[in-house]
Fold this sequence. Notes:
The chain has one domain: 4-Layer Sandwich (Metallo-beta-lactamase, Chain A), CATH 3.60.15. Helices cover 35% and strands 22% of the residues. The chain is built from nine helices and 14 strands. Helix 7 (231-252) crosses helix 9 (273-292) and helix 8 (260-267) crosses helix 9. The radius of gyration is 20 Å and the shape is globular. 41% of the residues are buried. The model has no long low-confidence stretch (mean pLDDT 94). Bound molecules: zinc ion. Zinc ion binds at residues 67, 69, 162-163, 181.
Amino acid sequence: MLKEITENIEKLVVRFPGGMREVNCYLIKGAKGYTIIDTGTYSKESIDTWKAVLKSGITIEKVVLTHTHQDHIGLAKWFQEQIGVPIFTSKLGYKEMLKGRDFIGRKEKLSHLIKGHGGPGLPDKLEDDSFIYDFEPDGFFEENEMIQLGNDFYEVIWIPGHAPDQYGFYHSDNKVMIIGDHVLKDISPVIGLWTGEELNPLKEYFGSLAVMKNFPATITLPGHGEIISDLDLRVQDIMDRHYYRLEQILEHLADRQMTAKELCEDVYSKLNIYIYLSSFMATLTRLIYLESIGKIHRKTENGIVYFKK
Length: 309
Ligand SMILES: [Zn+2]
């Protein structure tokens, strides 16, 4: 189950139904046991995977979370309560956890945001996942600190965009970057507004992509998919893709005004609601970014936001 990445780091793919369907967790060997990076979603399949790993008798020192999206934090409470392992997150991550505990409030805000941009709201039977956020972390890390993962010390880097509390951990001697969902190998990470607050995460994301050049990594360990050997190249690919999509939106808005929903359906095809939500969010965050740099403007009619050049 565990795949060796370096002498001290092993990768575990935790699979589960729905959403991204699998998440990468990393186990970093140390004198006091393994440090686990991210846990997988809360599901029977994920718990069974971890139980099988724990059966081999390994000791776990702590769990460290790259960000608090449900597929990364999902089993943190389970680790804390059932296995007795301390959990470490960022202070910003804790703020996101507090929002995550208010399922009704979060759902209402998100639904309001989507409807205000012409979308259909949320699917009725969205599962209440607030319980996964309902625990107190044992410790916190912050930007520019060093964090011990296994025996080694890693620099903590704040890279908001994919999530406001997205952090990376960089080991300069080994050129290893643990990057969460900031950069993935085969897909462009979704930049969304999952708590329903209308922020400008794409602007933050571009900033966080730009700082990657300060961290020359030869082994980049992402939260989903395969390991990245050329981080610079992958960052450039993702930037290029975003610029292409931004241009595409500007072309669509050349002679008409459109809602985020209309643009989303023009640019992407309407698939199932979850994929649809990701495309909708990608479109909306691009519109908010274009508005912030003065390329487009908004107009509200009957409570629905339209964008135009
Ligand atoms: Zn994520």
